[in-house]
Design brief:
alpha/beta; Aspartate Aminotransferase, domain 2; Aspartate Aminotransferase, domain 1; 2 domains; globular; binds pyridoxal-5'-phosphate
Length: 423
């Protein structure tokens, strides 16, 4: 007797990255995936928080580990059948700890925000005072926004950046720390283009008995490649994402010393999360494996070289580059000298297939633009392309309706020479 898949209740369509099966079953969503794949390939993806993960990472994400419930930690789960899930998580934890030289890694946070929530849960109580970069200077929502749990449950005191240089003013941080005696100091930003001085933050934290939380969501990929200083030797807890320059799946992680390991683990599960996403954890392990090799280190050097080249080229086009340049993958700029603000710039660039974000500008009104080179560098672009991109920016900002189509074609041609995925 032959038992068909349908007769036993199993999914008749294949699981995993079987595009044909998906198209037969659900053409509506298949169209979405095709359209999004094309959009990513035909435009210039300059969102500073995005990248193109490897096919190996995508394969892990699309695997049946997505089916597995695994509350708890390897060796002590609330569910049965976790032998492969346990192995995946053990490998991910070992690789993350080795990659960043940390005594302990927790790879379960569903996102960067979840990682920050867990760090606060482990170290703070509601009502505690926390010193963090103000949102108008590039702090993240989890650094005290009134729209976020952080602003509701903690008493955030913002520090800023120097009005002239755009750089963090460590003396101001010190003065505020002594004045407010925070329980924690947070260093990290969504748009700060320079390295942070983690040793200076540590010193200030020690002076006032605060703990130091580094939210390294952006630079952690550069840290993995040895292209940016590591917060791990300085911070009590390091929160990060795995999907930005690090080029892994969408998710978060927490790194800490052995003495905080148990508190962090309990803050992630069961305090702030339920079951771990095992397919994502397997994909994180794949990404950590990739990031440990020399090819990734070379990639991060190209990312920074490209960002510097693009910042220089944009300055040449008239953009006002915040801090005068960059140490990282990230550039923030004020397009005001070209007669537009960040919102208008973002919309005009998007009409030409150039994708980036607006950001707060430390001083002055209006918004700026924030962009990064992680994705275009993964595609293989280099110095000449950065110059071309800067030229396209100026053309796009000045374009009338006729010119938009022509520029869009130019963007498609440029991107088409550097496909993110082959075949
Ligand atoms: C991206 C980012 C986060 C949040 O990551 P999500 O995965 O979007 O929750 C937190 N902090 C900083 C500094 C970030 O750049």
């Amino acid at each position: 007797m032959s038992v068909t898949a349908a007769a036993t209740g199993a999914h008749p369509a294949a699981y995993g990255p079987d595009a044909d099966a998906l198209r037969r079953q659900d053409p509506e969503i298949a169209d979405v995936l095709t359209g999004e794949t094309q959009r990513q390939a035909e435009g210039l993806q300059l969102n500073a928080a995005e990248n193109f993960v490897s096919p190996a990472v995508l394969a892990a994400l699309g695997s049946p580990l997505a089916n597995k419930y695994a509350e708890g930690y390897p060796g002590s789960r609330y569910h049965g059948g976790c032998e492969y899930a346990d192995t995946a998580e053990r490998i991910a934890v070992e690789r993350a700890a080795a990659l960043f030289g940390a005594e302990h890694a927790n790879v379960q946070p569903h996102s960067g925000s979840s990682a920050v929530l867990a760090a606060y849960a482990a170290l703070l109580r509601p009502g505690d005072t926390v010193l963090a970069l103000g949102l108008q200077y590039g702090g993240h929502l989890t650094h005290g926004s009134p729209a976020n749990f952080s602003g509701r449950w903690f008493d955030f005191v913002p520090y800023g950046v120097d009005a002239e240089t755009g750089l963090i003013d460590y003396e101001q941080v010190r003065v505020l720390a002594h004045e407010h005696r925070p329980k924690a100091i947070v260093c990290g930003s969504i748009s700060y283009p320079r390295h942070m001085d983690y040793a200076a933050f540590r010193e200030i934290a020690d002076e006032v008995g605060a703990c130091l939380i580094a939210d390294a969501a952006h630079p952690i990929g550069l840290v993995a490649g040895g292209t940016a200083p590591s917060p791990v030797p300085y911070a009590d807890v390091v929160c990060a994402t795995t999907h930005k320059v690090l080029r892994g799946p969408r998710g978060g992680m927490v790194l800490c010393g052995a003495e905080l390991a148990e508190r962090i683990d309990r803050a992630v599960f069961p305090f702030t999360q339920g079951g771990a996403q095992m397919h994502t954890i397997a994909a994180k392990a794949v990404a950590f494996g990739e990031a440990a090799g020399p090819a990734f280190a070379a990639y991060t050097r190209r990312v920074v070289a490209n960002a510097r080249a693009l910042a220089d080229a944009l300055a040449g086009e008239g953009f006002a580059i915040t801090t005068g340049g960059t140490d990282t993958h990230l550039i923030t700029a004020d397009p005001a000298p070209l007669g537009v603000d960040g919102r208008v710039a973002k919309a005009r660039l998007a009409a030409c297939g150039i994708v980036l974000d607006t950001c707060a500008l430390p001083y002055g009104d209006g918004r700026g633009i924030r962009l990064g080179t992680a994705a275009v560098t993964t595609q293989g672009m280099g110095g000449p392309e950065m110059e071309r991109i800067a030229g396209l920016f100026t053309e796009a900002l000045g374009a009338d309706a006729d010119a938009v189509g022509r520029i869009r074609t130019g963007v498609r041609e440029l991107a088409g020479n550097f496909p993110p995925y082959r075949g």
